[in-house]
């Protein structure tokens, strides 16, 4: 199971990792993701730090591949970077490390991952997150135990007063982010995602993913990383999960999306027996996720395009 030990949680709350957690809370361009007794700190969708339990302490890692760009931040920063520095030294280096990542992303953009993190921030940590109907438990989620791999996993928890008080109808949500119409086709396109999720759903491992997601979310709550949520939740295993497509900057006149969705349904005709497929739309502008703005796949295909 992807979870942190009690000691890891305690060290983030009040021990040697406390300053790192506070840095994440104060910087809305950072987010923390829970793994199997290690954490990732993401910046613009890229892995800024990996912090893993090691013996009685912790080891922190920065991917020095982010130094591989043509620009210069400080002439000697990359050369003199201490890979074996302390956690406090790494924290002090965050501004310069972020700048290195900015320059790397300028030459090697990762827009889908960047927008994943924006979705997380809007629905977990922003001033409106208590009013949205979805929370994000993880980004870049991959679990070898249950064979799952999703851009985002989370929960659906209606923002009405009764729903938040009783917390009885919380359900699992799986999400894939696509940036631009060029991402809809090809080897990592919509058809491949439908095939993967159908295979995963038929494997019987969705229940394990529900437990994993519930554990991650509750640990994020324990760490104070979900705004205005201060109690543990249970995912209702009787509710069919949703599979939500987040289609950033889709050109409405393009036929690619509808073509790929129709072909995906032909290849996976029984997929909605296991998951409810939704297309997310925004409430005017923004990335807050609302139940009323989710379109069923059948309705989207029937009504979502004018130009053929």
Overall description:
The chain has 308 residues and is α+β, with helices and mostly antiparallel strands. The protein folds into two domains: 6-107, no CATH class; 111-303, Restriction Endonuclease, CATH 3.40.91. 36% of the residues lie in helices and 22% in strands. It contains eleven helices and ten strands. It has helices at 6-14, 18-26, 77-80, 87-92, 94-107, 111-124, 161-166, 190-202, 206-222, 256-267, 297-303; strands at residues 30-34, 38-43, 46-54, 57-61, 134-143, 148-156, 171-179, 242-248, 276-280, 294-296. The strands form two sheets. The protein has a six-stranded mixed beta sheet with strand order 5-6-7-8-9-10. The chain is globular, with a radius of gyration of 20 Å.
Task: Summarize this entry quickly.
With 308 residues, the chain is an alpha+beta fold.
């Amino acid at each position: 199971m992807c979870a942190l030990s009690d000691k890891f949680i305690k060290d983030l709350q009040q021990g040697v990792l406390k300053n790192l957690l506070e840095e994440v809370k104060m910087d809305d361009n950072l987010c923390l993701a829970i793994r199997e007794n290690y954490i990732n700190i993401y910046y613009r969708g890229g892995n800024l730090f990996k912090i893993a339990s090691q013996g009685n302490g912790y080891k922190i890692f920065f991917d020095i591949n982010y130094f591989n760009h043509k620009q210069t931040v400080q002439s000697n920063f990359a050369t003199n970077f201490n890979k074996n520095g302390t956690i406090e030294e790494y924290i002090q280096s965050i501004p310069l490390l972020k700048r290195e990542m900015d320059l790397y992303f300028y030459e090697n953009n990762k827009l889908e991952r960047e927008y994943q993190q924006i979705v997380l921030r809007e629905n977990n940590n922003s001033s409106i997150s208590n009013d949205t109907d979805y929370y994000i438990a993880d980004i870049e989620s991959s679990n070898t135990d249950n064979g799952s791999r999703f851009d985002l996993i989370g929960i659906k928890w209606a923002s009405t007063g009764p729903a938040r008080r009783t917390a009885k109808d919380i359900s699992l949500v799986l999400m894939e982010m696509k940036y631009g119409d060029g991402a809809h086709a090809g080897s990592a396109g919509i058809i491949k995602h439908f095939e993967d999720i159908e295979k995963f759903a038929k494997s019987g491992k969705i229940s394990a993913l529900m437990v994993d997601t519930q554990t991650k979310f509750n640990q994020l709550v324990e760490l104070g990383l979900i705004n205005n949520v201060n109690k543990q939740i249970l995912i209702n295993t009787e509710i069919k999960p949703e599979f939500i497509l987040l289609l950033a900057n889709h050109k409405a006149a393009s036929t690619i999306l509808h073509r790929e969705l129709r072909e995906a349904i032909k290849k996976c005709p029984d997929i909605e027996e296991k998951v409810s497929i939704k297309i997310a739309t925004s409430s005017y502008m923004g990335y807050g996720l609302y139940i009323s703005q989710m379109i069923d796949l059948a309705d989207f295909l029937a009504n979502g395009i004018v130009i053929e």
